[in-house]
Amino acid sequence: MKTIAVLLGVAVLTSCETSMPKEATSVALEPPAGAVTLIREAKGQDQGGYDLFLPTRPTPINGNVWVLEAGNDQLVRFDSTLSVAQAFGREGEGPGEIQFAEDLIVAGDRIVVAESGNGRLSAFDTTGVFLQTLPTAESPRFVAEVQGRFVATLNFSPHYVYQVSERGKLTPHAAIPDVIRNIAASDEAMYLPAGPYIAASSGGELFVLDQSVLALSRFDREGRLLQVGLLPEPFRSRLLEQRIEQRKAWGARAAAWVDTPAAKRISLDREGRLLVLFHLPDSWGLLIDTNSWTARPLMLPENRRLHDILWAASDAALDTDRLYVLSGSQLYHFAVEGW
What we know:
The protein contains four helices and 26 strands.
């Protein structure tokens, strides 16, 4: 059997730090992205598909679309037509079982799942066969691969992400920039505590969306800070204000919540396009070009059905000219225009 080091391709490197930017400027705003067209939606179990329950992380792999189904602790693979589906794994603590998984990534020819419930990373091949687990010193929440090494976010931690060694040891990798700490401390009533969302490029760069202040940071493969940018206005201010209004509507019990993100999931495609999802009355996210550090709004369409699907989207992935969206426990395939 392959060792964990071979299976997961993990190497241990010393975390490095560098001088951090003293200011955070806004990501430049450009005209809205083009329209989207609904191609198809996934079939339900009565038609040979699968009835999803709390799905996340739609991931195209070899012509199929994989989904991490948190509600039933399974991996679900749809074919290219989204009409045939197969489930893998089940809830539990044993090999190949899943418990409270929040994230899924593709690492080479392997699918890696971060299980906060079992405190480990579990690897499957791209046919759904379980390979091996890597127990971690603390429970991982979100995971990314940076040049053959895994990094993960943890709850209530002083760093954004930690490297995961071949023995599961966690070493700080990307520190929270001082400029972001200063912003968060400047108005604690506005910048509520919220854990980061992460995504990594094939070249080893790591992107972190700080959900407390809505700032995007770029780190190199060694965890050194390269750039910090606030989400563009007026979207950033509107999202922060919307979060405050939601907290007020939830009442006194909301004060006990320690993680209140202002936006939804993020995902990065092979061309460096970062999707940041949220819901506002007129828009459902931003498409950020990480090469030019510019953002294009994703405006809600006039068509009422498409409007409702995209407004309620919980996660999405862009793959060339295809967009896979999870909304209301359903998987949809869209075509994009001019993205």
